[in-house]
Amino acid sequence: MASPNDLQFQEFEEAAELLSADPGASTLSMSVSNTTTAAAAAGGGGGGGGEDVKLDLSEDEEGQEESSELLGGQKATGGFWTFEYYQSFFNVDTVQVLDRVKGSVMPLPGRNFIKHHLRSNPDLYGPFWICVTLVFSVAISGNLSTFLSEMGNPSYHYRPQFHRVTIAAVVIFTYAWLVPIGLWGFLTWRQGAERQIGGYSFLETVCVYGYSLFIYIPTSVLWIIPFEWLRWTLILIAMVISGSVLVLTFWPVVRDDTKVMAVATVASIVVLHTLLAVVCKLYFFQTAVHVPTPAPTAPPIQMTLATQSH
Amino acid sequence: MAAAEEASRPFAGLSDVSISEDIPVEGDISVPVGSSRRDDEFSTLDEPVKETILRDLRAVGNKFIHVLYPKRSSALLRDWDLWGPLLLCVTLALLLQGGAADSDDQGGPQFAEVFVIIWFGSIIITLNSKLLGGTISFFQSLCVLGYCIMPLTVAMAVCRIVLVGGSGTVSFAVRLVVVTASFGWSTFASTAFLADSQPPNRKALVVYPVFLFYFVIGWMILTFSPSQ
To answer: Which residues is B226 bridged to in the sheet?
Structure first.
């Protein structure tokens, strides 16, 4: 893309040099442009002349980037009934997806996920397949943890509990798609008529939420380890990482709003995210409640009675 | 006829020229004998029914052999058919029955769930591959994904035989090894067929859903527990 621009720019320079070499041949209008370009070229303003040329050209990348940011990064080609429209949402390479996943796991302060990693190219591949993987990892890990916790129980017969996949799918897909719709609608309503660059498009919101769920996949696998304190610690770590990705992304947008609304919005984002993690843990990773057999409990009761009688 | 009229106007001056009667200007409506002889080579209407069924069975069996020894051949892609995937899907769903599923809903997948997972999973993976810019056609991809379930179906049959002998730790270890090997074989076979049609910088993006698909099917096979 750079070489055609350079060629055109150079042609203009050559033409300007030709005109300046033969001033008699130029008309008044030509001499005006001639002097400006000559001055720009003389002043080492290859960039200056280039700027004039670049603003006129409609197919340079800078112009496209600016307009796409104003439009919120939606570069949909064709109507929604064509296949190419949906193909534009899958315009990512392996390296880009891995980079976005890495960015969701390691949030750095000051690095807005949308601005830094998405860069006006939101995709649907990441959110969709991360949600599918999370559904199966939660269901399978939950089944494994139930099996491990009941292993010593002779009356336990292993069950695959396959209906949990359906429940997990409903919960996770609802969260990953309805909450971004609500949040995007709410932010757009609060933005009002001012379409500043701060507003995110719907796709970018869905993308951020999808990638922020990635940290729960290794967390759900580690939840198999049957220690309660470890599970709650893991929830805390995952929430901090994932929540900070979301907060760092949405804080610059709500910062301009009133203090109350800004804090309320960010707090509700974090609360909903926490709720998802806690609900998943409590439903899929239930610790077994053993009904105590009568013999061991009888002596402790007698002992307490004996101590009370003192 | 209009052409004949237009052609006759430039020759208006030759109206006294007569056309002899023995030049055939009428067409023959009856079907010439020669073309029916050509039709017999492609017409399969008169062959015995056994021949018709055997032809399809031979095509399906040929593709099974291609899956058993996967190499980068286009035979599976060229003449796709969905008989094999349907056969494998029904066999796998039937073999997954009779477990702890029927008594309560805490059990394994129902027949319809297996069907839905296999067919909707294949459709979603195919759509994913096409959206990422793959050049394979929709039904060719369904055909490949369906045929590559064969190692997992064989593993399911082996697991059921092993479970007849008992369901202790040893049988679990044997089943784990068998299912893992067949899962790897399925993934390897399907990527061998699908690899060429993907754009080079997105291969991993297309292979990962296939891996997940066969992993879930392998999980369903491994966790099959017979009813007491």
So the answer is: B99
CB contact under 8 A, A163 and B108: no
Element (H, E) at A234: helix A228-254
DSSP alpha helix (H) spans, A106-201: 113, 125-149, 163-191
3-state secondary structure of A267: helix
Give the HSE-up count for residue B25: Cα atoms under 13 Å, Cβ half-sphere: 7
The pTM score is 0.71
Range in A240-244, B55-59, B72-76 the model is least confident about: B72-76
Q: Which token pair is B16?
A: 């006294």
Residue A216: predicted pLDDT? 92
Check: CB of residue A234 under 8 Å from CB of residue A220.
no
Q: Do B107 and A158 touch (CB under 8 A)?
A: no
Q: Is the pLDDT of residue A174 over 60?
A: yes
Task: Check residue A15 and give its pLDDT.
Answer: 54
Task: Please check the confidence at residue B40 and state whether its pLDDT lies above 70.
Answer: no
Q: How does DSSP assign A200-223, residue by residue?
A: PPHHHHHHHHHHHGGGHHHHHHHT
- Angstrom distance (rounded) from CA A64 to CA A24: 39
- Yes or no, beta carbons of A87 and B105 under 8 Å apart: no
- Three-class DSSP category at A89: helix
Q: How many CB pairs under 8 A join A and B?
A: 68
User: B109-146 burial, b if ≥16 CB within 10 A, otherwise e?
Assistant: bbeebbbebbbebbeebbebbbbbbbebeeebbbbbbb
B16-35 tens-digit pLDDT: 777 666 776 677 666 656 55
ipTM over 0.90: no
pLDDT at res. A39: 41
State residue B226 phi and psi, 5-degree precision.
-70, 150
pLDDT of residue A32: 44
Q: B144 near B193, Cβ under 8 Å?
A: yes
| Residues of chain B contacting residue A160, judged by C-beta atoms under 8 Å apart | 99-100, 107-109, 220, 223-225
- pLDDT over 90 (residue B195): no
Taking the C-alpha atoms of residue A297 and residue A279, their distance in angstroms, rounded to an integer, is 33
Which tokens is A193 given? 């008529």
Task: Give me the residues paired with residue B99 across strands.
Answer: B226
Distance CA B197, CA B193 (A): 9
